[in-house]
Amino acid sequence: MADYYTLVTCLPWLPEQMEKCSQLPLSRIALNRRLSLLDSHDQQGLAVAEALYHPNLANTQPDRERVLLWQKQIAELPSRVLQEVITQRLEIQTLLAALRYRRRPNTSAEHFYGYGRWTEWIRQHWKDPLFALETQIPLLERWGELFNQGHTGELQFEMDRYFWQQLLAVERSHHFSVETVVCFVLRWGIAERRLKSDADAALADFQLLSDTLLHNSGIQQQLNSLFEDINR
Predict the structure, then answer these.
(1) 1: in domain
(2) Other beta carbons within 10 Å of 186
(3) Which domain of life is it from (predicted)?
(4) How far apart are CA 153 and CA 159, in angstroms?
């Protein structure tokens, strides 16, 4: 069994509130060095948990084969608590996939595949704006409003904050255990994605601003005049 006490005490602090995490406390390389204290079984479980919790967003529509794979992988996770955490994440992912899928032309409920307890319910309530799940998911009305308004950035932020608090609650209730480690790493993954996204957006804004300033500057005007003189 891994020495969870030593590993957990080596992990840095992540803020309780996601929005206060303005930088990563350590690199992924440094994090992996600490995670090498896990035994091979726990390392494999962590890899599966990360892949399921932070999926490739290019394809959020689950198909039958992917759902069967998820079921197999979740059953192999090292604890019941982690199975529930990952399951809830995939169920909400399925719900959002259904909302997106329903907007496509020529789609129907019977062709929708998803993971978890709500899939059949979603098919049965396909024409309901939020699939009649408001009472089961307290934040769904707010998320649905943001989705319908096209505020994808704010929707992602609020969902990330929800997941962050859920993972933090598990960390606090399971001291010096594999659950503590995995949920910390999953929170680290949320922070990494958010900070990378912010950096990409900032770079794009900077490049746009730079292009605009250059286009409107006296330097650019002089260059344009120079090229005009050469081409005459």
Answers:
(1) no
(2) 25
(3) Bacteria
(4) 10
Nearest Cα to Cα of residue 96 among 177, 15, 46, 162: 162
Counting the structural domains of the chain, the total is 1
d(CA 19, CA 228): 51
* 223 found inside a domain: yes
Q: For residues 26 and 35, what is the distance between their CA atoms, to the nearest angstrom?
A: 13
- Asked whether the beta carbons of 87 and 74 are under 8 A apart, the reply is yes
pLDDT digits (tens), the chain, 232 positions: 468 999 999 999 999 999 999 999 999 999 999 999 999 999 999 999 999 999 876 555 567 888 888 999 999 998 999 999 999 999 998 999 899 999 989 889 998 888 999 999 999 999 999 999 999 998 999 999 999 999 999 999 999 999 999 999 999 999 899 999 999 999 999 999 999 887 665 555 445 544 444 444 344 444 455 445 544 5
At position 103, the amino acid (one-letter code) is R
Distance CA 151, CA 221 (A): 39
Q: Tell me if the pTM is above 0.85.
A: no
Q: Is residue 16 part of a domain?
A: no
Q: At residue 129, what are phi and psi to the nearest 5 degrees? A: -50, -40
Structure tokens that stand for 128 in this block: 């309901």
Rg (CA), the chain: 23
Residues 152/162, Cβ–Cβ less than 8 Å: no
Q: For residue 10, is it within any domain? A: no
